[in-house]
């Protein structure tokens, strides 16, 4: 069974399409794995066994009937519990939505279904995707399979933990400030935030609408690209969706050719505050890429140092307005509605009880930043700096094809270590936030293990808008160079957690 679990999604899709293995067998293996290890990992908030097996059997029947199968047909996938999927509760990791079952599917979910993929269930996340550790989830933290006392990243830590513990070969994440890339980095997996507008936000519970973007989580670059190709592309239901063909991500992941590619190293993302093992593996990745034919150039993006501060004004401003819809009337929780209390009182009680403290902190900051008299000083200034950050990217991309940095300054920290220190929690997204503010594509790829703690380090690759394929080209080149330098691919180092 473990052989099914450690196989790539590409390999599983091939076996299922040729009839070498049934989709049902593949699905059962993953459902059994979830039953065996999820009590330790807590990656899943809901497992949808019956529907998953029924879908798998349909795929097998389609194949025997000689019908055309979708790409990744029969391959199991886990979906972050921020995306609506009919028939299963969508909680967003919050008490506020406990028991709420969405009446429609997110476009991304519809595309998984259309591709004949098998949805295993919904994964844990920080409440409303706010956090870097899954510790703000109302349903308890997920754990990192590399060390169960450590965080699997956040907000999409359930998705990264599911993929890294071989509960699913693929998962869907969403990334507002790093929630796909930082979890990928600290779990030794691959995660890509597509160009803003490259994949649809329709049916995804909004955190900060100008930053949110769904994307793939996987163990290999090719698998991430295959999933990216399934979910991306124009959607008329999302007003910010880009009307253009999906960049050739699968071809790029299969080619991995970086000969002559110019790779810009962001000067601002190094030095103090970066763990020595992170620095070391980052430098080593650069050498591997250089040996593969890429040209390395140091680049300055002077405004990137303000990205974190900018994000923590723009994001809460959008959060405060998006989360106003949880008014105790329309969705989920309603507290104190005894026929005596006023609507305002019920709303106050519900929001007080339904939201956790991190969510409340952001609603308060956002409301303040948008309030009259402060709007120009806070929100207005932040929007100006956002433009300067975008201009830094534009300027850099006149001389280089991609930019690189460590994905996150440290490896996975211990559960509990940063929960009372929001500023140190926020620092986990130092390097990932600029790409959200500018809207361009970015991904994280395994760069090896930090010698000091044996935990995974990630390399971040950033590309211009709609040049997502370049990210995969670099990821694939790195993966190949590692396999030949180390004698085995990085994935062979991911520990196979015992039940
Ligand atoms: N960790 C960041 C935050 O707390 C990013 C969240 C995200 O990308 N959803 O806001």
Q: How would you characterize this protein structure?
A:
- The protein is of the alpha/beta class and 499 residues long.
- Helix content is 40%, strand content 12%.
- The protein has helices at 2-6, 9-18, 23-41, 49-64, 107-114, 157-164, 181-187, 221-231, 249-255, 276-291, 307-322, 343-354, 357-370, 376-396, 422-426, 433-438, 468-486, and strands spanning 44-47, 76-80, 118-123, 170-174, 190-193, 214-218, 262-266, 295-299, 402-406, 441-449, 456-463.
- It has an 11-stranded mixed sheet, sandwiched between helices.
- Helix 5 links the parallel strand 2 (76-80) and strand 3 (118-123).
- Helix 11 packs across helix 13 (357-370).
- The longest helix has 21 residues, at 376-396.
- The two termini are 13 Å apart.
- Residues 129-132, 154-155, 175-179, 207, 315, 429 line the site of glutamine.
Assess the beta-strand content as a share of residues. Answer: 5-15%
Instruction: Please provide the count of β strands.
Output: 11
Count of separate DSSP helical elements: 17
Round the Cα radius of gyration to an integer and report it.
Answer: 21 Å
Share of helix, binned: 40-55%
State the oligomer.
single chain
Distance between the termini: 13 Å
What profile does the largest beta sheet have? 11 strands, mixed
Low-confidence stretches: none
Mean model confidence by pLDDT: 97
Strands of the widest sheet, in order across it, are: 1-3-2-4-6-5-10-11-9-7-8
Structural class: alpha/beta
List ligands, each type once: glutamine
Query: Which outline best applies?
Result: globular
Name the helix and strand elements from N-terminus to C-terminus, one letter apiece: HHHEHEHEHEHEEHHEHEHHHHEHHEEH
């Amino acid at each position: 069974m473990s052989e099914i679990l450690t196989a790539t999604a590409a390999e599983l899709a091939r076996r299922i399409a040729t009839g070498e293995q049934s989709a049902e067998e593949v699905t059962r293996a993953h459902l059994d794995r979830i039953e065996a290890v999820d009590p330790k990992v807590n990656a899943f908030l809901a497992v949808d066994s019956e529907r998953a097996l029924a879908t798998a059997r349909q795929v097998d029947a389609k194949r025997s009937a000689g019908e055309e199968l979708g790409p990744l047909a029969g391959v199991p996938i886990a979906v972050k519990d921020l995306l609506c999927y009919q028939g299963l509760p969508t909680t967003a990791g919050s008490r506020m939505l406990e028991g709420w079952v969405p009446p429609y599917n997110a476009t991304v979910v519809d595309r998984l279904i259309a591709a004949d993929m098998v949805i295993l269930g919904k994964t844990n996340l920080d409440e409303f995707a706010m956090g870097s550790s899954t510790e703000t989830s109302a349903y308890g933290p997920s754990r990192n399979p590399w060390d169960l006392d450590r965080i699997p990243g956040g907000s999409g830590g359930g998705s990264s933990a599911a993929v890294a513990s071989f509960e699913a070969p693929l998962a869907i994440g969403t990334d507002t400030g790093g929630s796909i890339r930082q979890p990928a980095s600290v779990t030794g997996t691959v995660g890509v935030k597509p160009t803003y507008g490259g994949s649809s936000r329709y049916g995804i519970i909004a955190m900060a609408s100008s930053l949110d973007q769904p994307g793939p989580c996987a163990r290999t670059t090719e698998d991430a690209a295959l999933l990216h190709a399934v979910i991306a592309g124009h959607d008329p239901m999302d007003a910010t969706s880009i009307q253009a063909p999906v960049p050739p991500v699968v071809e790029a992941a299969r080619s991995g050719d970086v000969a002559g590619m110019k790779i810009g190293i962001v000067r601002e993302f190094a030095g103090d505050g970066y763990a020595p093992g992170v620095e070391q593996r980052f430098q080593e990745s650069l050498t591997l890429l250089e040996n593969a034919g890429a040209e390395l150039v140091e680049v300055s993006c002077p405004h990137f140092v303000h990205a974190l501060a900018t994000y923590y004004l723009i994001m809460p401003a959008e959060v405060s307005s998006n989360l106003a819809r949880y008014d105790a009337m329309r969705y989920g929780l309603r507290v104190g509605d005894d026929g005596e209390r006023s609507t305002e009182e019920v709303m106050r009680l519900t929001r007080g009880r339904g939201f956790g403290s991190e969510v409340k902190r952001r609603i308060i900051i956002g409301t303040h930043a948008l309030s009259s008299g402060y709007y120009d000083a806070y929100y207005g200034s932040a929007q100006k700096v956002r433009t300067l950050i975008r201009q830094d990217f534009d300027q850099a991309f006149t001389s280089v094809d991609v930019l690189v940095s460590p994905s996150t300054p440290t490896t996975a920290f211990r559960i509990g270590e940063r929960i009372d220190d929001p500023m140190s929690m926020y620092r986990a997204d130092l390097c990932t936030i600029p790409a959200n503010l500018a809207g361009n594509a970015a991904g994280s790829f395994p760069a090896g293990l930090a010698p000091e703690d044996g935990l995974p380090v990630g390399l971040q690759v950033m590309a211009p808008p709609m040049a997502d394929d370049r990210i995969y080209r670099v990821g694939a080149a790195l993966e190949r160079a590692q396999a030949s330098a180390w004698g085995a691919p990085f994935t062979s180092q991911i520990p196979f957690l015992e039940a």
